[in-house]
Design goal:
- Helices cover 42% and strands 19% of the residues.
- It has a seven-stranded mixed sheet, with helices on both faces.
- It has 290 residues and is of the alpha/beta class.
- The protein has eleven helices and seven strands.
């Protein structure tokens, strides 16, 4: 594909980052679940869902069963994005938000629609930058929602310019100390960071085989729960709300097992969640100090 930015070597600082970016740049159509769900209404997400599914989608005409399941899975993943945005606090049209690891831009568009503010999405995939910016143009919001080929560990944005920042299932690809240091720099005093992530539960025990399987499948490095709170504290980010979403996401995964889009990751996720070795958390934290 044609690169969007000649400074690729500056953005992608490690072999690992290059390998992650290469996957998304060269294999966008392998991501069948996110692509198919996004086609329901044009909001393309890169995360999972929460809430009680309408199980009536499993009954009715067989020839439309899979279509009904896809629509319901998409409703649940959009509900997860809405839940995240609910925790960004008092955001006004003149504020600026950042989506760290923005993917194809779904939540960024939802944030702009809800708050009317400027949103900057950051991703190391040049393919995703191009896709999302095309979406912004098609939606008529390119002046307010922009996507950048930048590394969220070193964005290059000015200090203290963001009212809010969020990450949605992207922190397992980076060092948390570096990440939260950069986010603390970017946030204005009193600004809000919201994270939704899967994390290993080091409160109840060590890593399980299911968590290790998930790590290997996605090529990521799932962090222990305690590491989030330790590194936030080290970077002047004070948690003001923590919600365990594990029980709320299990029904999503159970419904996904009924979909023809199932990839095989459903069983390890369900096993890890149900045995307690893995948790799905929402953490909202405020920047203190300058």
């Amino acid at each position: 594909m044609t690169m969007l930015n000649p400074d690729t070597g500056i953005v992608l600082r490690t072999h690992y980052q290059k390998s992650v970016a290469e996957y998304w740049n060269n294999n966008p159509n392998d991501d069948r679940v996110n692509t198919k769900l996004g086609e329901v209404d044009g909001l393309f997400h890169h995360h999972y869902g929460i809430g009680d599914p309408d199980l009536s989608v499993l009954t009715g005409p067989e020839d439309t069963r899979q279509e009904r399941i896809v629509q319901e899975l998409h409703r649940l993943e959009t509900a997860q994005a809405d839940f995240l945005l609910d925790h960004l606090g008092d955001v006004r049209p003149g504020d600026r938000l950042m989506d760290g690891g923005s993917g194809r831009g779904g939540t960024s568009f939802m944030a702009n629609q809800r708050f009317g503010c400027q949103v900057d999405g950051v991703t190391i995939s040049e393919y995703q930058v191009g896709f999302a910016n095309d979406q912004a143009a098609d939606r008529g919001v390119a002046d307010k929602v922009r996507f950048h080929f930048r590394n969220m560990l070193d964005t290059g944005f000015d200090s203290g310019v963001m009212r809010g920042i969020w990450t949605n299932e992207t922190t397992m690809y980076v060092d948390l100390s570096e990440l939260f240091g950069e986010f603390s720099r970017l946030l204005e005093p009193g600004g809000r960071y919201v994270c939704i992530t899967g994390c290993s539960n080091d409160v109840t025990g060590g890593r399980s085989s299911s968590v290790s399987w998930i790590d290997a499948h996605y090529g990521c490095m799932i962090h222990p729960r305690s590491e989030y709170f330790r590194t936030m504290a080290e970077n002047n980010l004070v948690p003001i709300d923590v919600v365990d979403l594990t029980a709320a996401t299990i029904p999503y995964w159970e419904l996904r097992t009924e979909s023809e889009l199932a990839t095989g990751v459903e069983k390890p996720f369900l096993t890890a969640y149900k045995e307690g070795s893995f948790q799905y958390l929402m953490i909202a934290a405020d920047k203190v100090g300058r």
